[in-house]
DNA sequence: CTTTGTGCAAACGATTTGCAGGATG
DNA sequence: CATCCTGCAAATCGTTTGCACAAAG
């Protein structure tokens, strides 16, 4: 998926978010990568060439983006919050060896039914987390 | 599942863990409840009547229990580590309204196959996280 | 008695907050 | 030009660590 600057700006505006360079940078970066970076990774990456955003601002940007549903938080490992601009339904694969996280297409996993979920629980959505070993970590 | 003091002691010994009152208390408490408490909840609960364990000790106990596989960490919500002495395979239900977490029997969910997992990924295990509303939070 | 665990307090790291100045619409 | 954002530094919160003493086997 390739995104153009203009689309990104329009998307932000459509959510009534002010388009600041920092916010744009955070969102564009998240759209461009697929490894669910942490705040620290974002911070390092964004400031690689030229300083663009402080940590606090990245946190604020992520929060704003999360509130309007453009970004989601991914919690798979202890003590690490990762962020994902892939909003569509998908599952996750976590390499237990190197910690890499990868999106898994929704269609790559059969649809799950909850046969005997206790009555009283109203399920709304679900997600499958698959753990295993990625190719780079295999013998 | 009702556990007797002796079983608990034997289980700990079988894992070569020294049986201290604090460790025993943490593990017995986790076995007795099913709400995946946080460290803070454990700390409060254990010291309700009589002070038994400091926070640091609870952390240490949980780590020891986790290393031998008697306890697992459950990560479903932001910034909260929960602990679970239910070691068997099971899924989780998370109430999006009140945050309650509930175990879901492995058999309550059909078995999941990964039809088109990218070649190169070797899946070892999986878990389904279901989000929705529990009965206490329904209108 | 040797080894390991406990508890306190200090240290730590990720995230949040207060606030003054700056940019956006 | 009113509103919202940024960046800095200080504050906060969960978790970890160092160390002296105590307990387990």
TrEMBL record, chains A, B:
Binds 1 zinc ion per subunit. Its cofactor is Zn(2+). GO terms for biological process: negative regulation of DNA-templated transcription; regulation of secondary metabolite biosynthetic process. Zn(2+) binds at residues 95, 98, 134, 137. It comes from the Bacteria. Gene3D superfamilies: 3.30.1490.190, Winged helix-like DNA-binding domain superfamily/Winged helix DNA-binding domain. InterPro entries: FUR, Fur_C, WH-like_DNA-bd_sf, WH_DNA-bd_sf. CDD domains: Fur_like (cd07153). It holds the Pfam family FUR. GO terms for molecular function: DNA-binding transcription factor activity; transcription cis-regulatory region binding; zinc ion binding. Signal peptide: none annotated. Keywords: DNA-binding, Metal-binding, Repressor, Transcription, Transcription regulation, Zinc. Belongs to the Fur family. This is Transcriptional repressor.
């Amino acid at each position: 998926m390739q995104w153009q600057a203009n689309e990104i700006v329009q998307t932000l505006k459509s959510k009534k978010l002010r388009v600041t360079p920092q916010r744009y940078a955070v969102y564009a970066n998240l759209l461009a990568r697929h490894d669910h970076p942490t705040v620290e990774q974002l911070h390092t990456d964004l400031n690689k060439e030229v300083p663009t955003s402080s940590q606090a601002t990245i946190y604020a940007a992520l929060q704003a983006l999360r509130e309007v549903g453009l970004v989601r938080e991914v919690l798979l490992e202890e003590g690490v919050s990762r962020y994902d601009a892939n909003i569509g339904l998908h599952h996750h694969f976590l390499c237990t060896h190197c910690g890499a996280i990868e999106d898994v297409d929704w269609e790559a996993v059969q649809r799950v039914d909850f046969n005997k979920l206790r009555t009283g629980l109203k399920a709304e959505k679900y997600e499958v987390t698959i753990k295993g070993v990625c190719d780079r970590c295999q013998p």
